[in-house]
């Protein structure tokens, strides 16, 4: 993973807390991880090479993979925002390009 | 592409007493409006509004079973299906436009959702747009007091000021308030309820007969033109609007993920999203996107760009959704998609 997605992920998580009106601080660790300190300590780090997971999210000591930034956001919000109900159904825009 | 034979459905909304029915009565007398089916929703056990409309048309239907936004799934979709059946059977005027007049207390969002998602009418009916009437005299107070009236304004494609003759110039603050709530919607004036049908319905973004899907896609610029300058942000106490502009084309999958994230994380706070997007895989055919809260209309593909401007422009009307979050969300998703593609290419090559 290049540095650009990591920097943007950090910024996105920081702004997402504000958008969700969730209290917390986001820190960019020296090893590239993102740490959220607030109601819970959450660690977000790039996933290992050659796996399907681009990110690993550790919440309450439990590490889970996330295939995309959207999956990271979903996990973080589920952990921090009790009023959030993640949608289990994914609906793709169809067609992606004109037929 | 949306079929040219799809029938546009316009939603006519506005708070109680704002002049919807009076305006509709005048519209029904205009030749340009003759091939229009009208559905009137009234809140109460006995409907009166449809009696106030003088029309010989057999395609004016009154729904008196309750507020449309509360019973929209059953009543409205059933009524639309019945209308199409009657049209197919030659049992009513062969209309080529439908107008739904909501009750003054209706939240237009569920109605728009129903129009955008009903599988039984998809392909035959398409959302034409939303016209919202505002009383020039009492509109300002109503906007202060009634959240639903602010929502009716926020989702509008056209705003129509009524009772200007009674306002005596007092409408100026109201105009500023309307511009703050929805700077993208042109404000028209109805003279004692009179307004030209072509002015009101003449630039429906989803109207395949007169909108950008027709041979003259210039209307899309009209649809977006009044959007706030992207360097500025207009805001109300709760509702704000802003425009996101991207000069680089956006990958189709990035747009899909972006819309999905908006629907998931903004939900009801995303009052309206409309835009024209330069898709990387389809540079000649821009995508027109349109969403209300968590529901997005399938993107429509224009035959060509309406002007030399190839930038993607997305207009947001939101409640409590920070502009910067939306910008970074799009940027981060785009970067991740590009990163995944680069990795795949490296592995393949």
Describe this structure in words.
The complex is a heterodimer of chains A (99) and B (349). Chain A has one domain. Helices cover 29% and strands 25% of the residues of chain A. Chain A has two helices and five strands; from the N terminus they run αβββββα. In chain A, strand 2 (34-38) and strand 3 form a beta hairpin. The longest helix of chain A is centred in the first third of the chain and has 17 residues, at 3-19. The radius of gyration of chain A is 14 Å and the shape is globular. By secondary structure, chain B is of the alpha/beta class. Chain B has helices at 20-27, 49-52, 68-88, 108-117, 139-145, 147-154, 164-167, 172-181, 197-201, 219-225, 252-266, 323-348, and strands at residues 7-14, 36-41, 60-63, 97-101, 125-135, 158-162, 187-189, 234-235, 239-246, 270-279, 282-292, 295-301, 312-319. The longest helix of chain B has 26 residues, at 323-348. The A-B interface holds A 1-2, 4-5, 8-9, 11-12, 15-16, 18-21, 54, 68-70, 73-74, 77, 86-87, 90-94, 96-98 and B 1, 252-253, 255-257, 259-261, 263-265, 279, 281-282, 285, 296, 298-299, 301, 320-322, 324-325, 328-329, 331-333, 335-336, 339-340, 342.
């Amino acid at each position: 993973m290049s540095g650009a997605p990591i920097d943007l992920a950090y910024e996105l998580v920081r702004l997402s807390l504000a958008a969700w009106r969730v209290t917390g601080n986001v820190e960019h660790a020296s090893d590239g991880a993102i740490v959220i300190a607030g109601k819970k300590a959450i660690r977000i780090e790039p996933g290992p090479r050659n796996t399907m997971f681009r990110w690993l999210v550790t919440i309450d000591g439990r590490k889970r993979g996330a295939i995309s930034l959207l999956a990271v956001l979903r996990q973080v919000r589920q952990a921090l925002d009790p009023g959030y109900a993640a949608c289990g159904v994914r609906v793709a825009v169809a067609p992606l390009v004109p037929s | 592409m949306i079929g040219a034979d799809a029938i546009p459905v316009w939603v006519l909304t506005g708070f109680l007493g704002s002049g919807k029915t009076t305006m509709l009565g005048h519209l029904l007398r205009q030749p340009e409006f003759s091939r229009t089916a009208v559905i009137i929703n009234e809140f109460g056990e006995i409907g009166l509004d449809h009696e106030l409309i003088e029309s010989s048309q057999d395609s004016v239907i009154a729904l008196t079973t309750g507020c449309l936004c509360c019973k929209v799934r059953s009543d409205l979709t059933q009524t639309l299906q019945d209308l199409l059946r009657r049209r197919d059977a030659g049992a009513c005027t062969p209309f080529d436009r439908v107008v739904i007049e909501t009750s003054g207390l209706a939240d237009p969002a569920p109605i728009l959702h129903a129009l955008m998602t009903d599988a039984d009418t998809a392909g035959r009916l398409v959302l034409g747009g939303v016209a919202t009437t505002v009383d020039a005299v009492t509109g300002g107070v109503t906007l202060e007091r009634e959240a639903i009236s602010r929502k009716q304004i926020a989702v509008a494609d056209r705003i129509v000021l009524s009772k200007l003759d009674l306002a005596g110039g007092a409408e100026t603050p109201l105009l500023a308030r309307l511009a703050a709530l929805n700077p993208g919607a042109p404000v028209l004036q109805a003279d004692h309820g009179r307004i030209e049908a072509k002015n009101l319905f003449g630039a429906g973004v989803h109207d395949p007969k007169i909108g950008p899907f027709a041979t003259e896609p210039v209307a899309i610029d009209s649809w977006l033109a009044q959007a706030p300058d992207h360097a500025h942000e207009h805001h109300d106490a709760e509702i704000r609007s802003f425009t996101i502009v991207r000069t680089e084309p956006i990958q189709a999958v990035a747009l899909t993920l972006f819309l999905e994230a908006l629907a998931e994380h903004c939900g009801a706070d995303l009052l309206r999203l409309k835009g024209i997007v330069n898709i990387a895989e389809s540079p000649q055919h821009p995508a027109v996107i349109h969403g209300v809260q968590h529901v997005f209309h399938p993107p429509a593909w224009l035959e060509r760009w309406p002007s030399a401007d190839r930038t993607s422009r997305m207009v947001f009307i939101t409640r409590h959704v920070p502009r910067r979050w939306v910008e970074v969300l799009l940027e981060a998703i785009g970067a991740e998609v590009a990163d995944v593609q680069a990795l795949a290419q490296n592995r393949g090559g």
